[in-house]
């Protein structure tokens, strides 16, 4: 069948309801409320000037038939500001799959942007690599932080979404922690004699068959060594919330921590000028839309 009125264009705020319907139809198991919440968060967040707020859509005579959600973020890379784009949810109605390359071509046309794919299914890994993407994260370490020794003379604080200033942190990191607290993440500060260290974690369920034990995902830390150093204090806090494990993106087991490392899941890819930092999933689909 030939569709003569199909075109690819940027998603606008007036398209949100129809895009939510399309994504609900395309992703079995995801409710419409799930998509509406994420799209609303995209509607209100800061987006680098000149880049789309939501992404791109295919429409046939005004009806949405395909979508690719994009999440653009400006990140400091040394003295310069780098643009990062999380290639998020993609769906095209089966009758229009031959138009799908229009979405991917327009979405990846900026050579100075670093593109991320943080949730590829294992069967897609070879396909992604043929498209020029390289892995920056090969696996996940499922740590049990409560079994680690807590640093001496340390304490940990839960950061409220309403916090105005956090002693020991810059205004930028303070805003990062409070913003993610509004996204239902757990924002923490661990204070030790060596310094003040920020962390962001998100509740997830690590599904293995019919078993899905409650856990946390490490969304942000300055570097993984700081998480390892503060893990004991973080783990004791998490036990109060009934959480035992913290999943950490990494490329090998974490020294000094008890847990399990696997490369069967968790691989993450990038394409572009800047290699992403491990343990920094701030402002990505995982946070805005949820696990």
UniProtKB/TrEMBL annotation:
InterPro entries: Acyl_CoA_acyltransferase, GNAT_dom. The keyword Cell inner membrane does not apply. Keywords: Acyltransferase, Transferase. Residues 6-151 form the N-acetyltransferase domain. Transmembrane segments: none annotated. PROSITE patterns: GNAT. GO terms for molecular function: acyltransferase activity. This is Acyl-CoA acyltransferase. The lineage of its organism: Bacteria, Pseudomonadati, Pseudomonadota, Alphaproteobacteria, Hyphomicrobiales.
């Amino acid at each position: 069948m030939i569709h003569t009125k199909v075109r690819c264009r940027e998603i606008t705020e007036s398209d949100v309801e129809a895009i939510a319907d399309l994504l609900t139809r395309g992703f079995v198991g995801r409710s419409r409320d799930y998509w509406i919440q994420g799209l609303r968060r995209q509607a209100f967040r800061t987006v680098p000037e000149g880049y789309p707020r939501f992404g791109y859509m295919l429409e046939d005579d005004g009806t949405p038939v395909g979508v690719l959600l994009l999440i653009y973020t400006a990140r400091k890379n040394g003295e310069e500001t780098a643009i990062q784009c999380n290639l998020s949810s993609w769906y095209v109605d089966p009758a229009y799959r031959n138009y799908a390359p229009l979405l991917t071509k327009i979405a990846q046309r900026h050579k100075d942007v670093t593109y991320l794919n943080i949730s590829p299914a294992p069967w897609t890994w070879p396909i992604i690599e043929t498209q020029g993407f390289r892995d920056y994260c090969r696996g996940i370490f499922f740590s049990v932080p409560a079994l680690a020794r807590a640093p001496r003379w340390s304490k940990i604080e839960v950061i409220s979404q309403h916090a105005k200033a956090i002693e020991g942190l810059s205004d930028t990191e303070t805003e990062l922690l409070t913003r993610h607290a509004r996204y239902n993440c757990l924002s923490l500060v661990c204070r030790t004699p060596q310094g003040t260290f920020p962390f962001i974690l998100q509740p997830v369920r690590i599904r293995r068959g019919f078993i899905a034990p409650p856990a946390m995902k490490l969304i942000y830390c300055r570097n993984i060594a700081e998480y390892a150093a503060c893990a004991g204090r973080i783990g004791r806090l998490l036990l109060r919330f009934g959480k035992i494990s913290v999943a950490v993106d990494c490329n090998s087991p974490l020294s000094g921590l008890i847990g399990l490392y696997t490369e069967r899941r968790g691989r993450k890819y990038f394409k572009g000028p800047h290699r992403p930092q491990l343990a920094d999933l701030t402002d990505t689909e995982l946070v805005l839309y949820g696990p």
